[in-house]
Amino acid sequence: MLSKLKNLTDFQLSYNNRLSLLIYASTNATFPKFRLLGLNSCNLTHIPDFLQNQDELELLFLTNNKIHGPIPKWLWNMSKDTLEILALSQNLLTGFDLLPAVLPWSKMRILDLDSNMLQGSLPVPPPSTYIYLVSGNKLTGEIPPLICNLTSLRSLDLSDNNFSGGIPQCLTNLSSSLFVLNLRGNNLHGAIPQICTNTSSLRMIDLSENQLQGQIPRSLANCIMLEELVLGNNMTNDNFPSWLGSLPRLQVLILQSNLFHGAIGSPKTKFEFSKLHIIDLSHNHFTDVEFKAPRYSWEGAYTVSMTIMNKGLSREYEKTPDILTVIDLSSNKFYGEIPESIGDPKGIQALNLSNNALTGPIPTSLANLTLLEALDLSQNKLSREIPQQLVQLTFLAYFNVSHNHLTGPIPQGKQFATFPDTSFDGNPGLCGSPLSRACGNSEASPPAPSTPKQGSSSEFDWKIVLMGYGSGLVIGISTGYCLTAWKHEWFVKTFGRRQPKWRRKARRGHRG
User: What predicted TM-score, i.e. pTM, was given to this entire model?
Assistant: First the structure.
């Protein structure tokens, strides 16, 4: 039937749920010359053979099918002079037949190979490419220097593969054009190169979950457009990079699970870190914090998917909630008392100070955090009674003060009636429900341990951690980014109408 529609150029069958496209190899039908062909989610098991004769395609969508095996060699010769967007993501593709050194499509703008099972070396797209997505595959070897010839590139996502070797220094050549650099989740090692130049356009850098060593390069101070820097889960050994506070647009700073150490100095001016919205300093060796809290409104341009520890569980967010304030400074070396000023910013929803060496009482001012849903103070050396005022926290769904030196009765009523006994383990001096120890017996409570002398320069100083108050501070997260807006922008620019849905689920990448 389609062979009779000689003037048909745009044919979109994507996302019709139960529709399957059946292509018979024996057919002699001649298909129209398509300009746009959308076959996302059509239960395809292979790349249709009739595409071999298509030489005018501009946009080809084959996402979210069951296409398996290697990409056939004839694909490289299809529509070499016209193809601008090729989407093969979310299939079962395993590799490449006769992969050329550089892919041949002279007008390529977007190449999406995400979420397959591709093995072998990284395909190098043509220099015209704007967006290149190859995350979630099994590609190996080093990142080829030829990738640095893509001087039009805006977004490069090679995350979640098995690339090894160092990060090519020549990526500096892309600094003036590249917006997004995502190399997360590989086996890259060595030092972080001097990526940024004085004309850098980089908005997001994600180098997390690799084996990178050494210090953060000071050239990052040249990335004046930088909004998101994610370096978590590496072996970076450095002091806190307070000099990053001069970046006027920095909103996300993730440094968790490295070898950072020492004190976190206070900003020299009130403008430093003035736009910081997401910060993760957990699982390092920091000993002191002295930041003051700038108060500003969050007007982020990104949709950030993330996984955070909230209410004791790992919880995935498809995008950053508009008002989410999570403070996680867990697993460092902070000690001293928690000051009463912790109760000043009213918007905190989750607070995690666990696994440090904090001493003294739990501040009664925590009762001022009326939106608090999760509070984790476990694995410290806190003493005295749990403040009865915390019963006022009617949104509190998770509470953990286990393994401290707390004494006296557990507050009763409201949310405290819902917490399990494990929330209070390891405090022999506590009594009352849900514990089996009744209050008022003759058993003496153990004495409160001594605390460091007030005024010690190494004590926990809360002048700080509330960067981003008013919109939300997120600490202790792993992030990903979404490219949907890029694709939408390109499609609308090309066809002047709404873009067809590329995904059922947000992908990792940048939202431009």
Answer: 0.78
